[in-house]
Amino acid sequence: MIDVTYVQKACAYITRGSGELLVFEGPGHDGLQIPKGTLEAGESPAEALFREVLEESGLGTLNGATKLTTDVWTRRESPPKRYVRHFFHATVHEPRDSWTHTVTDGGEEHGAEFEFRWIQPSTNREFALDLDDYVHLLPTGSATGEGDIASISD
After folding, report:
1. Domain with 90 in it: what CATH number?
2. Of 22, 23, 61, 143, which cross-links 14 as Cys (Cβ 3.0–4.6 Å)?
3. Per-residue pLDDT of the chain (154 residues; tens, 9 = 90+)
4. Are 94 and 16 in contact (CB under 8 A)?
């Protein structure tokens, strides 16, 4: 029997203005990502959301964070690791079109520099780690294109 580890993650779809979506690229990441991270002991998904967004992007104020969905995503490793991913949507008033932020958490990414920018969300655009799976759940006007991605494993 294979032991499977479950890791709880909070994932943030952050939009501004006309629905532009915040994404980043950084070292050790293969493609576009959204702010996300592991829940700490005793922390709720919503608490982790705010902490991770601050640590990874430097954004300290989110407006109207709402939970979109939760899934279980499997990363094939030995042993396999499953991620219980809690996806949220929040808005922010951010005038910068792009910026670099140095990660402030105490984990593996501490000190890494992430390059943030805003994009028009599209259900045809693929993100690393299938983080684009729920772009179609963003409020009307936030996502364009057709075709949802059904796969939840890499």
Report:
1. 3.90.79.10
2. 22
3. 667 779 999 999 999 998 999 999 988 778 899 999 999 999 999 999 999 999 999 999 999 899 999 999 988 766 778 999 999 999 999 999 999 999 887 777 888 899 999 999 987 888 998 999 999 999 875 544 333 222 233 3
4. yes
Residue 39: inside a domain, yes or no? yes
136 CA to centre of own chain: 14
The angle formed by the CA atoms of residues 26, 57 and 150, to the nearest 5 degrees, is 65
Helix (H) or strand (E) holding 64: strand 63-75
DSSP reduced 3-state for 61: coil
Per the confidence metrics, is the pTM higher than 0.70?
A: yes
Please tell me the total count of domains within the chain.
1
Residue 150 lies in a domain: no
